[in-house]
């Protein structure tokens, strides 16, 4: 879903992002100059209530590997005023401008086998963990023949 755009105005990449609950009418993309391969391409800056530009995110170059091979920008906008970061992707170019796209992250499928496989090196069976179970293999409570103390010492 497209939620905004950036275009060149007076030599700067300026734009906006708007959703039903978020309105960022004045955003800018500030180029990052770095020799680090892992550095972002742009910092996302926004005009705050005090009329100052502040960084609210960053964008890195990415490649659509499984489809067209298109190069695009991806990152997120985050601010203490937001409930959670807003992941975004920008498609286009510096010359023609960028379309800002958002897509809801896909959730993992939590349905699966009841027994999960442990990580390599994790203790298994009766070793490690939180101790013995109170349930037997048939699901019944084990050790229920023991009397319950009426008094609990403190």
Quaternary structure state of the chains depicted: single chain
Rounded mean pLDDT is 83
Class based on secondary structure composition and strand pairing: mainly beta
User: Outline, from the CA principal axes?
Assistant: elongated
- As a whole number of angstroms, the C-alpha radius of gyration is 26 Å
List how many beta strands DSSP finds.
8
Order of helices and strands: EEEEEEEE
Strand content: 35-45%
Largest sheet: 8 strands, antiparallel, barrel
Low-confidence stretches: 115-119
Q: In angstroms, what separates the terminal alpha carbons?
A: 60 Å
* Number of DSSP helical runs: 0
Strand ordering within the main sheet:
1-2-3-4-5-6-7-8
Specify the helix fraction band.
Answer: under 10%
Overview of this protein structure:
The structure is a single chain. Strand 4 and strand 5 form a beta hairpin. It is built from no helices and eight strands. It is mainly beta and 154 residues long. It has an eight-stranded antiparallel beta barrel with strand order 1-2-3-4-5-6-7-8. It has a domain of 100 residues. About 3% of the residues have low confidence.
Could you name the key traits of this structure?
154 residues, mainly beta, 8-stranded antiparallel barrel, 8 strands, elongated
Helix-strand blueprint:
Blueprint: E1 2-9, E2 12-18, E3 23-31, E4 42-47, E5 53-63, E6 71-77, E7 86-93, E8 97-101
Antiparallel strand pairs: 1-2, 1-8, 2-3, 3-4, 4-5, 5-6, 6-7, 7-8
């Amino acid at each position: 879903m497209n939620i905004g755009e950036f275009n060149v105005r007076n030599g700067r990449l300026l734009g906006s992002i708007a959703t039903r609950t978020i309105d960022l009418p004045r955003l800018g993309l500030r180029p990052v100059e770095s020799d680090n391969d892992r550095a972002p391409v742009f910092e996302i800056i926004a005009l705050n209530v005090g009329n100052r530009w502040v960084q609210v995110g960053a964008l890195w170059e990415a490649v659509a590997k499984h489809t067209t091979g298109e190069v695009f920008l991806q990152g997120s906008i985050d601010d203490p005023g937001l409930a959670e970061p807003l992941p975004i992707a920008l498609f286009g170019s510096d010359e023609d401008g960028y379309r800002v796209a958002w897509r809801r992250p896909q959730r993992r499928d939590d349905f699966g086998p009841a027994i999960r496989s442990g990580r390599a090196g994790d203790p298994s069976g009766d070793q490690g963990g939180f101790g013995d179970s109170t349930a037997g293999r048939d699901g019944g409570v084990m050790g229920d023949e023991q009397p319950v103390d009426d008094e609990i010492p403190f």
